Amino acid sequence: MTYLFDTLNSDAGNESTEGNDLITGLKDHEYVVNLSSTTENFSTENTSGIEADAISETLLPIINDLVEQEDLNLSETEINNILVEANDFINNNFSSSDLDNLFSNNATDTPVEPSENEPFDKIYIFGDSFSDPGNIFNSSTFLQPFEELLGRDIPVTPPSPPYFEGRFSNGPVWTENLENDLGLTSTPASELSVFNPALPIPSPITITPDGVAASPFFNGATTTQSVNFAYGAAQTGTNGAGEFGDLIPGVTSQVDSFIKDHQQVQQSADPEALYVIWAGANDYYTNGGDPEATVDNLETSIESLYDTGARNFLVADLPDLGKLPAVTGLDNPQVADALTNFTEQHNSLLAGTLNELDNSLNEINLVPLDVSGLFENVLTNPENFGFTNVSDPFLDPVTLNPSSSNPDEYLFWDDTHPTAAFHDLLGDFALDTLMSTTTLTTENATI
Known about the structure:
The chain has 447 residues and is of the alpha/beta class. It has two domains: 4-102, no CATH class; 123-132 and 167-186 and 226-435, SGNH hydrolase (Rossmann fold, 3-Layer(aba) Sandwich). It has helices at 15-23, 30-34, 52-69, 76-93, 96-102, 135-142, 147-150, 174-182, 251-264, 281-286, 291-308, 325-328, 333-360, 371-380, 420-435; strands at 123-127, 187-188, 194-196, 199-202, 205-208, 211-214, 227-228, 274-278, 312-316, 365-369, 389-393, 410-412. The strands form four sheets. A six-stranded parallel β-sheet has the order 2-7-1-8-9-10, sandwiched between helices. Strands 3-4 form a two-stranded antiparallel sheet. α9 packs parallel to α11 and α11 (291-308) runs parallel beside α13. The N and C termini lie far apart (62 Å).
């Protein structure tokens, strides 16, 4: 048979992605008892010093839950073969320190106290690929060994390289640059989530009655540290866009998992944290466009966070979607005009909604981020920002081959997402926007 781990053999040297997501999956499960006889002959000779039984117990839960979910007929011998191959793969490609770290659950890190000069003690980010630090990459990578069980071809998204460490760009995304300026560091949600509350072992995915999905369970980990919940392809509602939208949490789902995690440990949202929300593009690309529904989703997310205790918000509008290379390359002015119209409606409704919330919610600090204005400024005056090409993607849309030697001269990395140069610019712009908003007050500082 074709073993599940065959798909990883070509990437055996990538310790920080496939191996991390694979091994950190699971620990202690009822199937370990049921299948204990299958692991009696599991080799205990390995270079890491980790017991082979520990490795098998870590992998068995997801294998067996997937077998049960997909109603597959795998014998104990076949499952044992999978485990043997996993044992060989793990011990051939990971050091002792790697495995020691991966087998320990670090989901509840101790928070770092901010200095008195830092305006926020944490940052929480909700959104799509423009802000994703690797969440969809981690989840899609983790699922590679289980494609056969799922009966689905799930590509690693985005392919890295040429994309940078799971970002939809060639470097850190704008929120990471903003965090650095604020003296903060967020952790991707996919690196903190657990399989489920009853089986609280590190896993970026979970099994639901409807199938596999990104795990919304954190066992209180989001209450002690900054977290980035943004997922590539996320829409403003419950799910994501496209063929694998059912695997992707939309913004309302991201917010819901944050709130439920706080409720689980009976904590309110941190009023001294900054809450960043940017989404909407995927709603218009795939659903035909409904600006009122899209902005309503964003309003619901803000109100839900506020009701939980959040007070400081940075909410971004959209760049002109009709001017992205993915649209202009279609050579169809009607599509471009429609997306430009959607963008204008979205931004107008969002501005009005934020103004209403600012006037109606007591002690809320709502800061709009004018991404649209910055984007237009770059398109109109590229030389002022160091760009020489603001119309073409640096990567060929089909081959993903680079078109030149210097991506910093390009506005677009691919036909939808900006380069790290623009992300750096946007991070600085966001900081300037926050610093110029004198009404934003926290316990640590006033800016």
